[in-house]
Design a protein that fits this description.
Layout (H helix, E strand, L loop, with lengths): L1 H39 L10 E6 L5 E7 L4 E8 L7 E4 L3 E2 L2 E2 L3 E3 L2 E2 L18 E7 L4 E7 L13 E5 L1 E2 L8 H7 L12 E6 L4 E6 L5 H12 L4 E6 L8 E2 L4 E2 L6 E7 L4
Antiparallel strand pairs: 1-2, 2-14, 3-18, 4-16, 4-18, 5-6, 7-8, 7-11, 9-10, 9-11, 12-15, 13-14, 13-15, 16-17
Length: 270
């Protein structure tokens, strides 16, 4: 009787050990297949009109940067998260509900409606604000403080783009605080995710999003630190916090997952 019981217990132990080993093998196989599938997925886009870089500034702010030429930029109405857009780029300017509160125009055509229409991207609503402008004829970038697209100074209003935000004043530290107060940058002293767009002396554009919550000044300082290795000229803050979003083959930043009206996209070569 005791021998039979011992034999039965041994068989059960062997069975349980075999079952456990089988479970381990199945789980390992599933994880391996998932990892292989993930690693074999094609890139989000074949876009080669940009380079990606990330860095952590000495103040702890981590920046994610897309560098491109101004000719490669375009504005898109997406009404969704940038990471679901299928395009490389970052979020655009400020908005409320379905209305853009920042200029977003190409060749005098606002991205979200008609000229002179509220919420279309024709106006920097309520305030004259820093607006990054690219003159396609003169091949010149500049930051202009304007209230609407009609005030923008370019060679030809049929050949330019302009993105509104708030002035960064990269070369004017003494007036930085006064500027963001005058242009009404939201919550400058709170820890928020931040976005911006800047340019350098060689006419390259840098789309920048932080994955670290920081103040407006900390964000600016991290860009100034980046400038020590890149000859940056100037730029603007874009919408921030949950709207700070970035999409590329190398990185996805969803903000808080919210939908934004407009993005700054890097188009692919046709």
């Amino acid at each position: 009787m005791q021998k039979a019981t011992a034999h039965l217990i041994r068989n059960k132990l062997i069975y349980l050990a075999a079952l456990f080993l089988l479970i381990v093998i199945v789980i390992s196989t599933v994880l391996f297949l998932q990892d292989s599938q993930q690693n074999s997925q094609p890139p989000v886009t074949q876009n080669t009109n940009y380079t990606y870089e990330s860095l952590q500034a000495t103040n702890g702010v981590e920046l994610h940067i897309l560098r491109t030429a101004p000719e490669s930029l375009t504005f898109k109405t997406i009404n969704g998260n940038v990471t679901a857009s299928g395009s490389v780029g970052i979020n655009g300017g400020f908005f409320w509900q379905q209305s853009l509160l920042s200029i977003a125009v190409e060749n005098d055509q606002p991205v979200n409606g008609e000229q002179n229409a509220h919420g279309s991207g024709w106006f920097n609503t309520k305030y004259a604000r820093g607006t990054l402008v690219y003159d396609r004829i003169a091949k010149r970038l500049s930051v202009q403080v304007v209230s609407n697209a009609a005030e923008i100074q370019v060679t030809d209003h049929s050949a330019y783009w302009a993105q509104g935000g708030v002035s960064l004043l990269l070369q004017d530290e003494p007036h930085f605080r006064q500027s963001i107060e005058k242009e009404a940058l939201p919550v400058p002293d709170e820890l928020r995710l931040r976005s911006g767009i800047v340019y350098d002396v060689d006419n390259y554009i840098y789309l920048i999003v932080s994955s670290t919550k920081c103040t407006a000044e900390q964000f600016r300082q991290s860009i100034v630190e980046y400038e020590s290795e890149h000859p940056l000229v100037d730029g603007i803050y874009l919408d921030g916090d949950g709207s700070s979003q970035l999409m590329s083959n190398e990185m996805k930043l969803i903000g808080d997952g919210r939908a934004v009206i407009q993005m700054i996209a890097i188009h692919e070569d046709e």
